[in-house]
Write a structure and sequence with these properties.
Layout lengths: L1 H20 L15 E16 L4 H6 L6 E15 L2 E14 L2 E19 L2 E8 L31 E11 L4 E13 L12 E12 L2 E10 L5 E11 L2 E17 L2 E17 L4 E10 L5 H12 L6 H5 L11 E9 L8 E10 L5 E9 L5 E11 L11 E12 L1
Antiparallel strand pairs: 1-2, 1-18, 2-3, 3-4, 4-5, 5-6, 6-7, 7-8, 8-9, 9-10, 10-11, 11-12, 12-13, 13-14, 14-15, 15-16, 16-17, 17-18
Amino acid sequence: MKKFVKGGVLALCLLYVSAVQCGEYDFDLSEIEKKPYSVGGSFELKSNVYDYDTSSPVFGLKYDNPDTADYLVDLRLNLSYEAGGLKYTVKSASKYFGKADESPYTDVSLMEHYVSYSSDVSFRVDAGKKTMKWGKGYAYNPAAFLDRPKNIDSPEDALEGYTLVSGEYTLSFLGALKTLSFNPAAYYVDDNWNRELGADDGVNFAGKLYALLYDTDIDLMFSGGESRGDRFGADFSRNISSNFEIHGEYAKYYDVQRLSVSGSDTVDSDNWIIGLRYLTENEITLIAEFFHKSSGYTVDEMKEFYAAADSDAAAFPGRLLSMPYSKNNPMRNYFYMRVSFKEPAGVLYFTPAVTLVANTDDGSFSLAPEAVYTGVTNYEFKLKAVLMNGGADSEYGEKTADGRIEASVTYYF
């Protein structure tokens, strides 16, 4: 053993002397230094084929004689440059969308563009258009006061941000409380800035207090100002074991304008989710969440909407479509579940999944099986079907399409 140790030390010494004497083998630290800039993104080709339900009252409001297929070319660019504590980030989306019998159109938007300053790892200030990503929910985030609602059909899609100024200050401790951070934000609302964040012009403030307490992530949030009613929220996330996580989120909205066929009123709304994520030994991932929104429409109110859409009121579709009836999750109670299977039966780079979104008030639901293949470097191939099921006057039974098939190819760079 001593001979082995001595031999190893001698070999290391000879290697060191050789490296010092031979300049052509000098180690260049610049080769591993972090570059001040980064460039990335994706290029996606997608096509959808729809099975329209022409008998749906909502179909008559939205369409006349639509094409049964469309296509999308989507280029995403993510750029950043960092120097001297300053970092500039830009994320753009350029979309080219078309249908068989219609002229295509192009939409170019900045999803995020902001400047960050950080003096050390505990302090940061951001200014510009960005997403805040508050909340612990996967499909729903009632306490994400400064973010746009997620697309329930694809919750992982990147969201467009809002223009604001925010900061973050973090402290670390020994003991039950390991981390404490505060994330304040300020933003202005008018016809040119952040109109979706309030109906009235004015200055607004928000903040999030985060704590890692007894190995549990906890957030407390607030939002208030001149543009909309106050909002307060809280969430938590905890790993019960290495493969089992539970989370919850609650938000109280004050003075929410509630539009309906019969009129409008102002209410307070309680919104919450409870959910879990579980990973089995053979890498099957289960995500499940239950969502409640007290200001959502009741079954009778939805029936009233469908009756209005079928009647002479449909001659003025703009009024009905401006209401949340046909938006994502207009009612009160929903159940979300997604099950994905990583490389089943040993099929490499293949991940099938199925997603269920159920309206527990009226019993209707959507079911979306999909398959993703990533066996080609930097490419993702996806095939997905979305199927609607429900009775008359139910949310998913009265969707404009009974189903659709989606095929896409995405290149990441």
